[in-house]
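Blackboard transcription, Thursday session:
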Amino acid sequence: MKKTATRMALLFIVPLLCACAQYENQRGVDVNWQNDITGRLVKDKSTRQDVLALLGPPSQIISLDNESVLYYLFEHSQGEGLILILYNRMRINTRYDRAVFFFDENDVLIDYATHIYDPDAS
Amino acid sequence: MPSEWSKLLLLVYCLLLGGCITQWHYDLGARIDASEQSLPPAGTTLAATLLQFGPPHRMSASDTGYVLAWEHWNVSEISVGFSLGAAGADFLSVDWGRMRAKGEFILMTFDHHNLVSAAARSEWDSNRGGGQAVQPFFGFVSVVDADDLVRRMHQHNWGMGVLSPPTQTLNRDSSPYTGQAGLEQRGTPRGVGQQSLEMH
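(Written on the board underneath:)
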């Protein structure tokens, strides 16, 4: 009887000492640079205004010599934690969805590139 | 029965009292999968480069054009600690920790005609420090510090740059975080070089 009670107590207490955690953190601008949206942009024709109208304000504006760049960034961190008191492990994966647009001195789009993290592809 | 409970409580108490191993793993970005041979030669267009590598993680204007950089970091941190803190006594902690980082970094410079003028790649897998400590009364220091390697991208703070402390605002034109005065890798010491005037 005593042993059974002890085992039951152990079964009850040990799980209480363990824990798991999940963590998520998102920073940056909304991801609006899917292919169907950026597909409306045409190199050497679309303007900075077109890009701003489609994507909104960027994370950063960079001035080059006669050109300028709009940089969009969305940072997404996901973490998982296993807490076993004696051994604890945390794993955090951070991915960067980003888009960069280059404009000439007349504010015409000369080049751009986009990237959206695809968890299925990793 | 009381003796059984005593043993059980003692076991739980020892678990809380004793040491523990803690591991942190950070994976920042995705692998670039580029070899030295796959770097574009001088004269390659911006369009071809973006097609091959995608949008850069970092970029900045430079005197001769601009620079783009791609990076991937994998930081592992392990610490072993023994403390009485869980028992309600905030003294006597013994800690040991190590940190390791591996990753790759590609830097390309472009001229005013949007052509590659130079490209370089580095890859590393190295010990990034650690330590051990016996702190009898108060825990003053952490033996492993990966904060400067895993912090958020600086682009998020670009708009707030002018609201920084005066020393940093005065140095804004030379800051590697504005995209106008070069860039720097994660973990670059601030005590010397471009940011030393910011008095970190």
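Lecturer's comment: Chain A is about 25% helix and 45% strand.
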